[in-house]
């Protein structure tokens, strides 16, 4: 059982770990409990985070508009021209959750809701089944949904409500940016864009 005093801290959702900390109390129950707390104030909104975007020299045979993710560097490159790219700091999959390959941006969503995949909930049954869109959602302000052969891979390039959590090996295979950077990337990348993960 989560004490009322802890509920705001948890919903502020500083990270996915905060959602895990909900334990047996589901997200909806936690929200209802919060509304019952006499005199409770809303938690401060998570910060959008700094921009780590830099224009850099980048040698690639990929066409302009391609996203190239270098997992070992923890960097995402958006090819902007011959020998040029925008470089963004990202978080990548922790040990055992990294992957490589070529996919496409199959869909884009502003302030996405989050439904943890069945595989993730099997590993972490305490996760909520659903988190509505908004500033406390682990996917942050924007999400690019990665598809392969027309099917959703369940991997995302997305923002975060924990900007301090960008730049580490800590995801379940998704690629996490600050909300500031993912909003900029979202505006630059169309559905259908090629994404190379290496």
Short note summarizing the structure:
Helices cover 20% and strands 29% of the residues.
Please supply descriptive tags for the structure shown above:
disordered N terminus, 198 residues, 29% strand
Q: How are the secondary structure elements laid out?
A:
Blueprint: H1 4-11, H2 16-20, H3 27-36, E1 54-57, E2 67-70, E3 75-81, E4 84-89, E5 92-93, E6 101-110, H4 118-123, E7 142-148, E8 151-158, E9 169-171, E10 175-176, H5 179-188, E11 194-197
Parallel strand pairs: 2-11, 5-9, 8-10
Antiparallel strand pairs: 1-4, 2-3, 3-4, 6-7, 6-11, 7-8
Helix pairs in contact: 1-3
What can you see in these coordinates?
- Helix content is 20%, strand content 29%.
- The protein has 198 residues and is of the alpha/beta class.
- It has a single domain, classed as Beta Barrel (L,D-transpeptidase catalytic domain-like).
- Strands 1-4-3-2-11-6-7-8-10 form a 9-stranded mixed β-sheet, covered by helices on one side. Strands 5-9 form a two-stranded parallel sheet.
- Strand 7 (142-148) and strand 8 (151-158) form a beta hairpin.
- The termini are far apart.
- 33% of the residues are buried.
- The model is unreliable at 1-39 (pLDDT under 50).
């Amino acid at each position: 059982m989560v004490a009322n005093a802890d509920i705001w801290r948890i919903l502020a959702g500083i990270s996915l770990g905060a959602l895990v900390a909900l334990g047996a109390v589901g997200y909806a129950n936690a929200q209802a409990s919060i509304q019952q707390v006499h005199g409770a104030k809303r938690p401060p909104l998570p910060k959008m985070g700094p921009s780590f975007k830099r224009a850099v020299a980048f040698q690639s045979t990929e066409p302009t508009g391609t996203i190239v993710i270098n997992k070992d560097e923890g960097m995402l490159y958006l090819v902007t021209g011959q020998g040029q790219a925008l470089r963004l700091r990202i978080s990548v999959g922790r040990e055992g959750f990294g992957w490589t390959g070529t996919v496409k941006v199959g869909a884009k969503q502003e302030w996405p809701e989050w439904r943890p995949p069945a595989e993730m909930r099997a590993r972490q049954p305490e996760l909520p089944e659903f988190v509505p869109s908004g500033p406390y959602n682990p996917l942050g302000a924007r999400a690019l949904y990665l598809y392969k052969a027309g099917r959703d891979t369940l991997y995302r390039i997305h923002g975060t409500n924990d900007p301090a959590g960008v730049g580490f090996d800590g995801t379940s295979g998704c690629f996490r940016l600050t909300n500031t950077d993912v909003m900029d990337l979202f505006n630059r990348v169309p559905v259908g864009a090629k994404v190379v993960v290496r």
